[in-house]
Design goal:
This protein has 9 helices and 20 strands. It is of the alpha+beta class. The chain has 2 domains: about 230 residues, P-loop containing nucleotide triphosphate hydrolases (Rossmann fold, 3-Layer(aba) Sandwich), CATH 3.40.50; about 130 residues, Nucleic acid-binding proteins (OB fold (Dihydrolipoamide Acetyltransferase, E2P), Beta Barrel). The strands form 4 sheets. A 6-stranded mixed β-sheet has the order 6-7-8-3-9-10, sandwiched between helices. A 5-stranded antiparallel β-sheet has the order 13-12-11-14-20. The chain starts with a strand and ends with a helix. The relative contact order is 0.11. Bound molecules: adenosine-5'-diphosphate (ADP) and magnesium ion.
Length: about 375
């Protein structure tokens, strides 16, 4: 089996609200895949369709090469962990975790053995007789995870499972979940709106924006080669310039932006095309005079010290701010000084403008 979960041209429409748009996604067996995007972009809807709780308006979903609709819920090798834990309040921790096995009429001694194993796995030994109200948020989440894992699913779906925990516990649980996933070799499809969480935990990230899968890739691919302006700004910090291509010389591309000219490298761009240029703060440099190919000037506004790096906030004539990162100990110009930001051409990411592509398509139609 090549892919454990496959979504093929999946759409979900509620009334007039097109929530998931032509989603194609292939999940590899044993991988940790994260659906990442802002609130309302369609993550939960996608997860619910994979779980079989919700039917796609069109398109197909297959789990282990079988269409999910053909299987009864209890036959599916998929389990879900919700943000709200959804524990039974009047059952003990033991009975909460044992529930799925009891429903399947697994013999009692086997239930006992598997529950004990699970409680060890999520480090809840000794909590058997407690009730959910007697546990902390992190412990409740562990019970929810144990309960979902005890059926030995091939795929575990997790919808913002750490969202209700404080930062310190969340960081700790992130590492534990990742460890658990690798140890059990279960495919995780994990939903979060937290980019840092996605970058820390995932083998691959699927970035959703307004119901569309903008980009699918490893954390490094997505950070270094964002394909849309949304992805560039959503993942990590960056400096964004919008402008028109004015000259192309081999791979070198000059772009005219509001405050001057900048450079980057790329292929398949056209003269006159309106594009976005993204430059990460750690790739930005500055000089006290213009550098070949660059003509934007800026004024140093402020310095922020963050551990071993210094963030220089500089402002452009149009009021936009740029972030430039320097190492502590580097010589820095005084606040108020004029500087000329620049970078290695290869360090800029050039991004086609989606709207532009749409206009082009329309133009092609009207021009015949
Ligand atoms: N059962 C439903 N009926 C109508 N609209 C819904 C329903 N479920 C979700 N939506 C809408 O679909 C969009 C995406 O929701 P959701 O998948 O929950 O987003 P996310 O999990 O990314 O925050 C939202 O605009 C939401 O209001
Ligand atoms: Mg959601």
């Amino acid at each position: 089996m090549k892919y454990i979960v496959e979504l093929d041209g999946v759409n979900k429409i509620y009334g007039t609200n097109h929530v998931v748009k032509d989603l194609n996604l292939k999940v590899e067996e044993g991988e940790f895949l994260t659906l990442l995007g802002s609130s309302g972009c369609g993550k939960t809807t996608t997860l619910r369709m994979i779980a079989g709780f919700e039917e796609p308006s069109s398109g197909s979903i297959r789990v282990e090469e079988e269409s999910i609709e053909e299987k009864e819920p209890f036959e599916r090798n998929v389990n879900t962990v919700f943000q709200s834990y959804a524990l039974f309040p009047h059952k003990t921790i033991y009975d909460n975790i044992a529930y799925g096995l009891k429903m399947k009429k697994v013999p009692k001694p086997e239930i006992k053995q598997r529950v004990t194993e699970m409680m060890e796995l999520v480090q809840l030994e000794g909590f058997e007789k407690r009730y959910p109200s007697q546990l902390s948020g992190g412990q409740k989440q562990r019970v929810a995870i144990a309960r979902a894992l005890i059926n030995r699913p091939r795929v575990l779906l997790l919808d913002e499972p750490l969202g209700a925990l404080d930062l310190k516990l969340r960081k700790q649980m992130q590492l534990e979940l990742k460890r658990l996933q690798k140890k059990l070799n279960i495919t995780f499809i994990y939903v979060t709106h937290d980019q840092e969480e996605a970058l820390t935990m995932s083998d691959r990230i699927a970035i959703m924006h307004d119901g569309i899968l903008d980009q699918l890739g490893t954390p490094t691919e997505i950070y270094e080669h964002p394909k849309t302006k949304f992805v560039a700004t959503f993942i990590g910090e960056t400096n964004i310039f919008d402008g028109a291509v004015t000259a192309i010389d081999g791979k070198d591309i000059s772009v005219n932006v509001e405050n001057g000219t900048i450079m980057g490298t790329g292929e398949n761009f056209k003269k006159g095309e309106y594009i976005t240029v993204s430059v990460r703060p750690e790739k930005m440099k500055f000089s006290d005079q213009p550098v070949d190919g660059f003509s934007i000037s800026a004024v140093v506004k402020d310095y922020v010290y963050v551990g071993s790096v210094i963030k220089c906030m500089v402002s452009l004539p149009n009021g936009n701010e740029l972030k430039i990162e320097r190492l502590a100990g580097d010589a820095l110009p005084q606040i108020g000084a004029a500087i000329y930001p620049y970078w290695r051409k290869e360090d800029a990411v050039l991004i086609h403008n989606r709207d532009n592509l749409i206009f082009e398509a329309i133009e092609n139609i009207t021009l015949g």
